[in-house]
Amino acid sequence: MVFIQLPFVFLTQDVCNENGLCQGNVLEGFEALTSIHCMKICKKSSLCQWYSFNKDQKYCLNLESCDVFDGNEVGFVSGQVDCPIPIYSKLLITNGAYYEEGNQKISEVVDLSNDESSCNPLKDFPIDLQAACGGLINDSMILICGGVDPSGASNKCFLINGPSEPVVYMKLRRNMPGCAVINDTLLWMTGGFNELSNEKTTEFIDLTTQLAVAGPDLPAGLYGHCMVSINETTVLLTGGYGSGSGSESSYLSYFFNIITYQWTPGPSMMNSYVYHDCTILKTNGTTIAMLANNYHVEFLDMQNPSEWYPGPAPDESMKPQFY
């Protein structure tokens, strides 16, 4: 008796990010950097039900159907449109300043899901830098802009593990800016401090064109604030110096609508914040904004964003070492 491995499988169960190629009615094909990017484009289409991503050629197929699944095509990753987007467990720590040692070039990755794991070392950052801002673009590239280097406030944008020269120059030098990832190509750089004043201006950094384009002004000149995209249309801004509070850190928050270009005041925070972190948490179908510094943690339920409420206080023994 001879056994022959059949290359094609008729699907009877869910497929999410598995090695193999879907064969069916192709809606479109395009270049993509990662399988996650390929999946996200499929989710935006009302017709797309499946995706297949070629890992070597960085090419994505969006399909209306997957009649057969070729598991032998291990150069592809495929899945269904309703597959959950993977949760990132790795944290990048880069640059900053240590008390006696000054600005840092080092970068390291921490895996929050496995404290015994180790990652391949990253290249040193091209310049000594602190107080910059950046984000993960297109699920594959980490762009860092602004901050202060040995020559002063910076207008340079670098890619982590990328070229040693800046990939984009901002229109203005921005020390301690706030920023938010807007889409698969844009990083929104806002405010910051330079030799002249607190900046109210903003600019969009486009990795596709490698250009900086002027954006809408902030509600006030700000630095040391934090920003995060809540969804595809809304950005949250919190805290900072300069938002109507003189030299004191701010209790204020704002929402920005990317479609209408309008700022709307949000609820005042329980504590004032500057040089803090902010992020979005998604749990049990609920989106929650979180902000934290070395002393306080606060949450805002985005289904009813009327009032911040306290989170667990950080360990009082924690002292800031990097910034």
Q: N- to C-terminal separation? A: 69 Å
> What form results from the Cα inertia axes?
globular
User: Which stretches of 5+ consecutive residues score pLDDT under 50?
Assistant: 1-12, 319-323
Structural class: mainly beta
Tell me, rounded to a whole number, the average pLDDT: 84
So how many helices?
A: 1
Annotation, overall tally of beta strands:
30
Gyration radius from CA atoms, angstroms: 22 Å
What percentage of residues falls in helices of 4 or more residues? under 10%
Beta-strand content estimate: 35-45%
Task: Kindly report the spatial arrangement of strands forming the biggest sheet.
Answer: 2-8-5-6-4
> How would you sum up the major sheet?
5 strands, antiparallel
What's the short version?
With 323 residues, this protein is mainly beta. The chain is 3% helix and 38% strand. Among the domains are: 73 residues, Hepatocyte Growth Factor (3-Layer(bba) Sandwich), CATH 3.50.4.10; 103 residues.
Features:
single chain, 323 residues, mainly beta, Hepatocyte Growth Factor, five-stranded antiparallel sheet, four-stranded antiparallel sheet, 30 strands, 38% strand, disordered C terminus
